[in-house]
Amino acid sequence: MRSPDTVEGPLPGSVGIDGRIYIVIAGKQFIPSGTCSRTMTGTFKERLEFNGYLWKNISQETKMFYFRENLFIGILPSITSSTAFGRNEPRVRYKDFLNKLHAKGERPRYISEDIWANWMQYWSSSEAVTIADRNSINRKGGPEGVSVSIHTGGTLSHQEHADRLESSMGRSPYPHELFLHTHTRNHDGVTFVSDRAKQIHERVVESLQSQQMNDNNVDHAHEYYEAVGGRDCCGRVFGLGSYANVCYSHASSSSSATTSRLAATTNEVIELRGTVGVLMDRINRLEDFISRRLPADPQAPSADRPHSPPS
Prior knowledge:
It contains eleven helices and two strands, in the order ββααααααααααα.
């Protein structure tokens, strides 16, 4: 996350002097997610396999091609600590890529007819239909459920919404503040998208007010975590999306530990961006120093050298 009043440095999504895209990792997501997704999709289009309707069917050679190509353009970080996550990211994006193709149902020009026919044959098979129906039911909270993932975040990830709130608030938003922003119409903080969203917000506010009456040191992250019932069976925290991985790095949320981790992460990112800014400034000064001391092109006209008369 970025503190606009503290450090001026490269913004996520900007292109460096080497042509690589500057990104950051927030929780388990690359930011800016839209840029990363579009670039990876372009890589997928360059090489598709006959049985590529499932990620597990793709050859190791092609998987490494996706990884190397995205590493080269800077989408996947080359630092050791993120290599394992970076190798997993193409798998997630490829699944999204397939889901969009399946939903549209029309063969794009970059997919050959034989590959498309094979993919369509699998998607219409009883195995694929059963899996799709089961996933649809799970997303709705069970056979009798209705969708529980309604929010007004649009195409931006929760992390990107949190970054925008941080820019306007001057600090990282608390979980319930982000929830209010992404679960009310037009982000008005009043018109909730569902009764459940309204009930959760009221529950959090009531709990915070109760805690503030008894203790000045209120852990907002912990109160939200308790109000929504912690993590679900898939390890997600309701209403926070990718931002949950920033607020809660462990399934059991300790009040003091959660707050300190969030602050430590923010400070670390600020320090890293400050270092990058200093290095970029040094590179620019070095390039300027070298350019001033390079010998002039002998073929170039100079004001100090008289032109030879034509023969």
